[in-house]
Amino acid sequence: MVFPASSYRGRLAPSPTGHLHLGHARTFWVAAERARAAGGALVLRNEDLDAVRFRLDFVDAMLEDLRWLGFVWQEGPDVGGPFAPYNQSARRSTYRAALEHLHAAGLIFPCTHSRRDVLEAIGAPHEGADTDDEPVYPKEFRPPAGAPLPPLGEKISVNWRLRVPDGEEIKFTDGHFGEQRAIAGRDFGDFLVWRKDDVPSYQLACAVDDAAMRITEVVRGADLIKSTFRQLLVYRALGTTAPAFHHCPLMNDASGQRLAKRHDALSLRTLRAQGVTPAEILGKFVGEPV
Ligand code: GLU
Q1: Residue 1 — pLDDT band, cuts 50, 70, 90?
Q2: b vs e for 109-147, b when ≥16 Cβ sit within 10 Å of the residue's Cβ?
Q3: Enclosing domain of residue 23
Q4: Fewer Cβ atoms within 10 A, N terminus or C terminus of the chain?
Q5: Average pLDDT, the chain
Q6: Which helix (H) or strand (E) holds 248?
Q7: What is the mean pLDDT of residues 240-258?
Q8: Residue 271 covered by a domain
Q9: Ligand 1 atom nearest to CA at 223
Q10: Dist. CA 206 → ligand 1 center (Å)
Q11: Residue 193 is assigned to a structural domain of this protein
Q12: Is residue 224 a contact partner of residue 247, using CB atoms and an 8 Å limit?
């Protein structure tokens, strides 16, 4: 086995909630190119936490599509590695330990308000609203700072949120987009770290895993820039070092709509069935700045 010469560690972190499309191919290509250029390692993490949307057949399809495109990873669910397991569904105890840390430090609070309550409190439209990002959690729903917390309990049946430092500017320098700033409590609010169906949130699981797997640079789509501010607060709360971030511009379809997993026409499976080759797909990205 050839060990990478550099300490760069990147990752591909797809969720098995649909078939991968051209946009994923481009983001993963950037991630793979940056790891290759740095002489580092690439980790594949299967983000299969969301039991409601996740499907086992998508996991196989995801790995197969990535291999078909020619991506190679040194660690992952299929090849193992020093930070196994690489399936998030098998990493619950790690997330639970992080949650207990946040609880002991008094940095989270239980929330019994529904999404509807939150939208009503901030006067936002309900259904059909742009659900691209979580609404800012209303301050009046928070328990007072320092109020004693109820125990987490063995089985969690209430949402737990991280209390963000109101008014603090959170910033990072993105490898592609440059300096990024957001004000906690204004641009994003108290966010979920654990869901009442006893599932860790994406924000918690992702930051915990990137730290645990010693990822040095996170390459992902620009739709997750706002998540990065939240995850920076998770790293801080857990006393772990944050990686560098490099967000990739999103791809649009011919009508200007952002590509999503529902765009089956542009899924890698469909393109492959139509006879499009990996070289034709990746060839489109070569020469783009990474
Ligand atoms: N699993 C997430 C997704 O497929 C990406 C997470 C990340 O790269 O941080 O949307």
Answers
A1: very low
A2: bbbeeeeeebbebeeeeeeeeeeeebebbbeebbeeeee
A3: 1-90+252-290
A4: N
A5: 91
A6: strand 244-248
A7: 88
A8: yes
A9: 10
A10: 8
A11: no
A12: yes
Q: Would you call 223 helix, strand, or coil by DSSP?
A: helix
Ligand 1 atom nearest residue 219's Cα:
8
In this structure, what CATH number is given to the domain that contains residue 261?
3.40.50.620
Residue 78 in domain = yes
Separation between Cα atoms, residue 211 and residue 216, nearest integer Å? 9
The share of the chain scoring above pLDDT 90, in percent, equals 77
84: tokens are 């196994």
Phi, psi of 5 (to 5 degrees): -80, -25
If one compares 129 and 75, the residue with the highest pLDDT of the two is 75
In a domain, 238, yes or no: no
pTM above 0.90?
A: yes
Structural domains in the chain (count): 1
SS3 sequence of 79-120: CECCCCCCEHHHCHHHHHHHHHHHHHCCCEEEECCCHHHHHH
Q: Is 57 exposed, middle or buried (0-12, 13-18, 19+ CB in 10 A)?
A: exposed
Instruction: Identify residue 267 by its one-letter amino acid code.
Output: S
User: Mean pLDDT, to the nearest integer, of 242-254?
Assistant: 90
Distance from the alpha carbon of residue 223 to the mean position of ligand 1, in angstroms: 10
Residue 274 corresponds to which tokens in the numbers above?
């139509």
- The two three-digit tokens of residue 209, written as one number: 């895993």
Pocket of ligand 1 (CB under 6 A): 13-15, 47, 206, 220, 224
